[in-house]
Specification:
The protein is mainly α and 375 residues long. It has two domains: 236 residues, no CATH class; 107 residues, 3-Layer(aba) Sandwich (abc type-2 transporter like fold). It is 67% helix and 6% strand. A four-stranded mixed β-sheet has the order 2-1-3-4, sandwiched between helices.
Length: 375
């Protein structure tokens, strides 16, 4: 590494250290995003407020309520005296679900068949679908327990066994914790956003201040200027990766089952795409605000079409095929597989090749255009 390149890198680090906003963006924002998304962006539905209209007031009804209370999916928040009051709570959004137990529940249960009404607020489909499955499962489990108790009391030596038994096993994430899925995605989003935004802003900042012309008239070659500009942000991007990985592991319990060295190397490979986008934005924008907007125009489609929030298989075919043009899609697959499954590179080879092609093409095009802009 020659002295000119070292001087550019040193200059860039000095500018970063003096810019408090950039330091905050690099060191604090990734942790804030991690905690916000780690806790807020989750599909785990717990403690759904439940309003109960118990017209039976019997021990059998209390046993049913205990079954719902024991599961942490629902929280019995309201006990109402009429269906109108229950509807009012759901209309206001105070309760997301309602349970109506009829007056003859105990006698109907003794006769062999009883029905209750379970009402769900479907305005939020994510909560409603999970609550619906939980309500049905709790009801079936409670019904099976009542039936087993009746058989036991009858003195008959019968085994209640269904004709088909499905035994499920969940690999890699047995408790289905959403943060295990979201936090690896946060790493990809941070790498992409931080490197692209900072690279674009750093170059445009030189142009705004008029120092880019001073650099051009020096003996520094154009490739040295490009490399000196992007290397500091590569190092900082990898620092953010390790920072988020450690916090995600120690605070949220996200496992790191794959090779840490492989994770770092493939993260550095993904940085080529983010840095390339930043360089391209710097050749288009004349101000830092324009650079930010240009990067965000590429960032938002990448987030929504990469599988970060929404499953790729659930997308319309057109958007699904467009998602192949998003480098973030391949990195999210890589980082989630490495962290949760702990496999080797042979299992993700196709994604690695695609990420390499995107990185080389984007960075090559950005570097060529940047050099022409300097000329």
């Amino acid at each position: 590494m020659n002295s000119r390149l070292i001087s550019i890198i040193r200059k860039e680090f000095i500018q970063i250290a003096r810019d408090k906003r950039t330091l905050m963006l690099i060191l604090i924002i990734p942790i804030m995003q991690l905690f916000l998304l780690g806790y807020a962006a989750t599909n785990d539905v717990r403690n759904v407020p439940l309003a109960v209209y118990d017209q039976s007031r019997s021990s059998e009804a209390r046993a049913l309520l205990d079954a719902y209370r024991a599961a942490d999916y629902f929280k019995i928040a309201y006990s109402v005296g009429s269906e109108a009051e229950l509807q009012q709570l759901i209309d206001r959004g105070d309760a997301k679900a309602g349970l109506i137990i009829p007056p003859d529940y105990a006698s109907a249960l003794a006769a062999g068949s009883a029905q209750v009404a379970f009402i769900l607020d479907g305005s939020d489909p994510t909560v409603a679908s999970t609550a619906l499955s939980a309500a049905q499962l709790i009801g079936q489990t409670h019904a099976t327990g009542i039936l087993a108790e009746k058989v036991s009391r009858s003195g008959q030596n019968l085994k209640l066994q269904p004709p088909v038994e499905v035994r499920t096993t969940v690999w890699y994430n047995p408790d289905l914790i959403s943060s295990y899925f979201m936090i690896p995605g946060v790493i990809g989003m941070i790498l992409y956003a931080i490197t692209a935004i900072l690279t674009a802003s750093a170059v445009v900042r030189e142009r705004e201040r008029g120092t880019i012309e001073q650099l051009i008239v020096t003996p520094i070659r154009s490739w040295e200027l490009v490399l000196g500009k992007i290397l500091p942000y590569t190092i900082l991007g990898l620092f953010d990766t390790i920072e988020v990985l450690l916090v995600g592991h120690w605070w949220f319990g996200v496992p790191i089952r794959g090779s840490m060295m492989l994770i770092i190397l493939l993260s550095a490979l993904f940085l080529l795409s983010g840095l390339g986008i930043g360089l391209l934005a710097s050749t288009i924008a004349n101000t830092q605000q324009e650079a930010m907007l240009t990067v965000w125009m590429t960032l938002l489609p990448s987030i929504f079409l990469s599988g970060f929030f929404f499953p790729l298989d659930a997308m319309p075919k057109v958007l699904y095929y467009i998602s192949y043009l998003m480098p973030l899609r391949y990195y999210l697959t890589i980082i989630r597989v490495l962290l949760l499954k702990g496999v080797g590179i042979e299992m993700i080879w196709n994604d690695v090749i695609a990420l390499t092609i995107f990185g080389v093409v984007i960075m090559g095009a950005a570097a060529l255009r940047f050099r022409k802009r300097l000329d």
